[in-house]
Specification:
Layout (H helix, E strand, L loop, with lengths): L9 E6 L5 E6 L19 H12 L7 E6 L4 E6 L1 E3 L4 E2 L6 E2 L5 H13 L15 H4 L10 H5 L12 H9 L7 H5 L20 H14 L3 H13 L5 E2 L13 E3 L5 E3 L14 E3 L1 H4 L2 H6 L6 H7 L3 E3 L2 E3 L4 E4 L5 E9 L2 E8 L4 E7 L6 H16 L1
Antiparallel strand pairs: 1-2, 3-4, 3-17, 5-6, 7-11, 8-11, 9-10, 12-13, 14-15, 15-16, 16-17
Length: about 375
């Protein structure tokens, strides 16, 4: 398979065959606790139901999933499947995964902290904050605003939509790209539309946002995210991946080759560590982000309102780096989804209910992450 083909207080432990494992945790105070050896109490059959939910979607001997659903008082984490098909090590609930484009609301929040400090104006052009060499040759980059970039209305072409980028990844799959190197693949391409005149999901926007953040901070994006997002939100298990920081607890990522066989694509770098999707997280740390954001722990109220003010976007609505949708009868759902080589993610929060949903998979190219997220909501609201 070529890389281009990939585009796109209770504790119960239930151990299945070979590489399958499931861990469920529900805590009255919201913190996980170890089993003390006593017979675990039941939760109206919830454990067995959740096991069935994941087992129905996954092969126990194949790549798997970590999932989370819960609120401030009670939560369930689940892990099922294999984190490494060679060693047979099962996925664990505290393993780290690449979360791909679920990184975008976190990067947007980091950018918006500079709005709060008065250092960034959403309605100024990106070019006002960047050296000319970062925008030269990139359609609309000289006049699209910061808001246009964060809301995907800039019309700037997507570097991930070019054959040249994927050919380069095929040729050198483990290369770590810089933002400017990746953006070069979008240079000299026509704009999708004039700035502000349409929605077009382009990952180039978030590489430009990364460059703006780093110019303002005088620090790499990894440090800005740590100081302004991860630490304040209590997301100790999250980091922006770098060439030297791939966490040892990160699972392997898989995809199907042209013959239908699973292959390890963990080393395939389709933009790993960049501002459009480079964060690595545990599921429990990932789902801490949205409650912290919406409860005002990261941004001023006015800036948060700007972030959550959506425009119509591909059948949904998109704020500044965040999906803002009414869905499935549950009221407002905010969040994001993502996919990269060997990994997919769902990050949702239902502010009307205080409920978070997180799904991380170590395989690409299916809808299983969305299916499981939908099932987790149904599971939760069946008893709440």
């Amino acid at each position: 398979m070529s890389v281009a083909d990939q585009r796109q207080v209770r504790a119960v432990v239930i151990v299945g065959v070979a590489a399958a494992a499931m861990v469920l945790t529900a805590c009255a105070d919201g913190s996980p606790r170890d089993d003390d050896g006593a017979a675990p109490p039941t939760y109206d059959g919830a454990e067995a139901e959740l096991v069935e939910l994941l087992a129905a979607e996954l092969d126990p001997d194949g790549p798997g999933v970590v999932s989370f659903v819960g609120d401030a008082d009670e939560r369930f984490r689940a892990a099922y499947g294999s984190g490494d098909l060679v060693t047979g090590v099962p996925i664990r609930v505290d393993d780290r995964f690449r979360i791909a484009s679920s990184s975008k609301p976190m990067v947007a929040a980091a950018a918006l902290t500079f709005v709060d400090s008065g250092e960034l104006d959403l309605d100024q052009p990106l070019a006002a904050y960047l050296p000319v060499e970062h925008t030269a040759g990139l359609a609309n980059a000289d006049r699209a605003t910061v808001r246009h970039a964060l809301q995907m209305t800039s019309g700037i072409p997507d570097y991930l939509g070019t054959d040249a980028f994927w050919s380069a990844v095929d040729h050198d799959p483990d290369r770590f790209w810089t933002p400017t190197e990746a953006l070069a693949f979008a240079e000299e391409l026509p704009a999708e539309h004039a700035p502000g005149m349409g929605f077009d999901y382009s990952n180039s926007n978030y590489l430009l946002a990364q460059l703006v953040i780093e110019e303002l901070a005088g620090q790499p994006l990894s440090e800005v995210l740590r100081l302004r997002v991860f630490d304040p939100a209590g997301m100790a298990g999250c980091t922006l991946e770098t060439a030297t920081s791939f966490p040892a607890t990160t699972v392997r990522g898989y995809d199907l080759d042209d013959g239908g066989e699973l292959v390890d694509v963990t080393v395939v770098n389709d933009g790993v560590g960049l501002g459009d999707g480079g964060i690595v997280c545990t599921v429990e740390d990932m789902v801490r982000f949205l409650p912290a954001l919406l409860e005002g722990e990261l941004l001023d109220d006015t800036t948060l309102a700007e972030m959550l003010d959506p425009l119509p976007a591909d059948g949904g609505a998109y704020g500044l780096g965040i999906d803002v949708d009414e869905d499935g009868g549950y009221g407002l759902i905010v969040g994001h989804e993502g996919g990269s080589s060997g990994f997919q993610s769902v990050l949702w929060y239902l502010p009307d209910h205080g409920v978070s949903v997180g799904v991380l998979t170590n395989t690409l190219g299916s809808e299983v992450h969305r299916d499981i997220a939908d099932e987790l909501l149904a599971f939760w609201f069946a008893d709440h």
